[in-house]
Structure formats: structure tokens, C-alpha cells
Amino acid sequence: MADKDLRINEQIRVQEVRLIRDEGEHQGIMPVVEALALAREAGLDLVEVAPQAVPPVVKILNYGKFKFENEKKVRDSKKKQKLLKLKEIRMQPKIDDHDLDFKSKHIKGFLGEGNKVKVTIRFRGRELAHTELGLDVLKDVLARIEGDYVMDKPPAMEGRFMSMVLSPKSKK
Prior knowledge:
Distance between the termini: 32 Å
Strand order of the largest sheet: 2-1-4-3
Number of strands: 8
Oligomer: single chain
Number of helices: 4
Structural class: alpha/beta
């Protein structure tokens, strides 16, 4: 739950609440004014942690510290996320052997970095009548990069392009 959704102290506008002390012990259901008095007595805040419950659950705690801990959790979870990028390699069906080696080396590098790779063959003019040549080039690319990939999308035609999507094998 976002901090903006939490109500604290006088913002809590219900008659009865279920109170949890700062040590974590359940105090039971009581009037909100009584719970607020207990929080003030302890020098802490009354924070609504489960507003959808009946009656709402409130907790006596230091709101500043609570907010900081939540922000820290969000930051840590963002750090653990890995952003996958989709790299695209384009070629033509009449590509030379050396160029194919060069492009295959790039594809291997992108997969090694943990990126997905979209390999695209562009057909021009009469080349569209011989799409099997493009399929042969894609198969040749797969043979050159040797099994350190997973095919997300097999070779398929999309208008004047034939493409396939590869992703790196998970390192588990």
C-alpha cells in the first residue's frame, strides 16, 4: 500500500478500530479516541494499516520510521529488477559469409549481456518470392551462435520482414 493511502492520527474517521501495539501485541477492538490516547501516551502515531478490514486495523508506531522502512523496501525491490532490452539485428537474404559471422558475434554478445535479440531479414523486390533464402540465413545464424539461447518466437513473416526472437538461457 502506498504511504499516501495511509491515514494517521486524527485522519482516522471511524468509531471503532482493532488496535495493535508497537510491540506487535493485539489490544483488541476499542474506540478510536481511546486508541489515539494510547498512541499519544507512548509518544507515537496511530497508523491505519488495513483500512478495508471491519473494523479497520490500526497500529501504534513511529510514522516517520515506518515510512522510511517502506521506501527502503521499494528501493531494494527496484534494485533487484533486471530490465530486459530487446536488441535488433537486421540483415538481407543475400548476406555474405563474413558479414554473417560478424552479425552472429554481435548476437552472441547481446545474449551474453542478458538481452533479448530480434533477428530480422528484410526482403526487397523480387527477394519476396524466395523467402526460403531468408529462412536458410536464420537457420545459419542459429548454427553459428550454438545453443546458448532460447527461441521465444520462431522465424515468421511480418510483411516484407522475416524475424525471430531469441533470449539468453537462464543461469539457474
